Amino acid sequence: xxxxxxxxxxxxxxxxxxxxxxxxxxxxxxxxxxxxxxxxxxxxxxxxxxxxxxxxxxxxxxxxxxxxxxxxxxxxxxxxxxxxxxxxxxxxxxxxxxxxxxxxxxxxxxxxxxxxxxxxxxxxxxxxxxxxxxxxxxxxxxxxxxxxxxxxxxxxxxxxxxxxxxxxxxxxxxxxxxxxxxxxxxxxxxxxxxxxxxxxxxxxxxxxxxxxxxxxxx
Length: 218
Fold this sequence. Notes:
Blueprint: E1 3-6, H1 10-15, H2 17-31, E2 35-36, E3 51-55, H3 58-67, E4 72-75, H4 76-81, E5 94-99, H5 108-120, E6 123-125, H6 148-160, E7 166-169, H7 172-180, E8 184-187, H8 188-192, H9 204-217
């Protein structure tokens, strides 16, 4: 019998823990009761053979597939996109662009899952010229490697390529990038539950410290 474990991902839990819990409840409507794994995937949690990890994070999904050949994974956003029962909010055809995460932009699983969710929420997607598999990093991966001024400059450049002010992201770190670039980020989990996306003041350093604090304590 498959043992399901829900792994919300450190970015979601560092961003809005209550949304991590609401997603768990949605997952349990499909898979049944399961425990929550808060150990960061980069910290290599111990997992039993035959376990199935349920996660909304493309980075987590990739890491578990790569690092744990004896474990299976299920990308929760893909599952929700196919759900006949999830109460999708209706955004009335609102036009938004999208920033595809580095961990997901070359894999149709992630690209199609998120776009299906947007259609089911009645969101009209207006893609940037460089989007999907041709998309570019938001700049977050440069943090800590180059001066912060260069990080901000790259973020502004990427955000400036978005044809609409509202930009859907499905990585919590991309929130800061789009906000730094003057766009209004719309985090996919916030959209699913009708919440406003919190930029935490647009402080890139504070966000990365918050993210690393969670990873280091889990």
